[in-house]
Design goal:
Layout: H1 7-21, E1 30-33, H2 36-45, H3 57-66, E2 71-75, E3 81-84, H4 86-92, H5 98-105, H6 111-123
């Protein structure tokens, strides 16, 4: 069984995963590195909800991707850098385990679901946990 997601859904799922599970990657020795100028430019362009005066970090990360820029996930253990681009998100969302995709689609997701999605985008598979 496969779940066909539109590009908009793939981006939305990744955004939700960042909001719900970004803290998990720190436990694996992974950190996000974003060029300050790219972050500042994207932050200005994020449309914030009426109830908020500033965008959240995850909104800015998605805006960075939507603007054609990238950010890096640094691995302190292997010293590898994983460049996250919109193209990578769109292609690697097809590698997310089906149960995680279905949980997200059915709005039954949690931090573990988010973690599986984030890992799949970064590595092309779930390698931790």
């Amino acid at each position: 069984m496969t779940l066909q997601l539109s590009n908009e859904e793939k981006i939305e799922f990744f955004h939700n995963a960042l909001c719900n599970g970004l803290g998990y990657i720190q436990h694996y020795g992974l950190t996000i590195d974003v060029d300050e100028a790219i972050y500042a430019k994207a932050r200005v362009n994020v449309q914030t909800p009426k109830f908020s005066s500033k965008p959240c970090y995850e909104d800015v990360l998605i805006q960075i991707l939507n603007e054609g820029d990238s950010f890096t996930i640094q691995d302190s253990e292997s010293e590898e850098n994983h460049v996250i681009t919109l193209e990578l998100v769109l292609s690697n969302m097809d590698k997310v385990p089906m149960d995680s995709l279905m949980d997200m689609k059915n709005e039954q997701d949690d931090a573990e679901t988010a973690d599986a999605i984030i890992q799949s985008v970064i590595f092309g598979e779930v390698i931790y946990g």
